[in-house]
Amino acid sequence: ALIRAVAVLIVTCPCALGLAVPAVQIVASARLFRRGVLVKSGAALERLAEIDHVIFDKTGVLTEGRPSLIETSATIIAMAAPLARASNHPMSRTVARTAGDGPVAAEVVEHPGLGVEGLIDGRRARLGRAAFVGAPTLRSVETELWFGFDDGPK
């Protein structure tokens, strides 16, 4: 039935590719997702054809998709958790999972590529890259996640 419906739409549509491309992108993305690969957009899926080499980092984030926390304290995890619970970023999800259930920050705004900010008990807080939080940028081989209130990073 689905094949017939698609066939009718393609025949009656003046621009068959206008229907075919999104349908193929959805099916391909779903198949990749079942195999553990998350495609961010249709454009990213189309750009896969241009890839000659794939380089994975040594932390395993690209291969496992489950970041882990190292060199942190339970106090900092508890302080950052309200912001982390409000975000869907894999790093935030790791912090939220480690901290467990609890309150969620208010007025949360995600800044793609930088981090997330919001109010925790009335204080403005940020979770993300060092520069976004206001911490000195270090040259580390590990992915770093910083947390801080407006009065200073942690």
From TrEMBL:
It is found in: Cell membrane. It comes from the Eukaryota. It is a multi-pass membrane protein. It holds the Pfam family Hydrolase. SUPFAM superfamilies: Calcium ATPase, transmembrane domain M, Metal cation-transporting ATPase, ATP-binding domain N. InterPro entries: ATPase_P-typ_cyto_dom_N, ATPase_P-typ_TM_dom_sf. One of its GO terms (molecular function) is nucleotide binding. Its main location: membrane. Residues 1-18 form the signal peptide. Keywords: Cell membrane, Ion transport, Magnesium, Membrane, Phosphoprotein, Signal, Translocase, Transport. GO terms for cellular component: plasma membrane. GO terms for biological process: copper ion homeostasis. PANTHER family: ATP7, ISOFORM B, CATION-TRANSPORTING P-TYPE ATPASE-RELATED. This is HMA domain-containing protein. It comes from Pseudogymnoascus destructans (strain ATCC MYA-4855 / 20631-21) (Bat white-nose syndrome fungus).
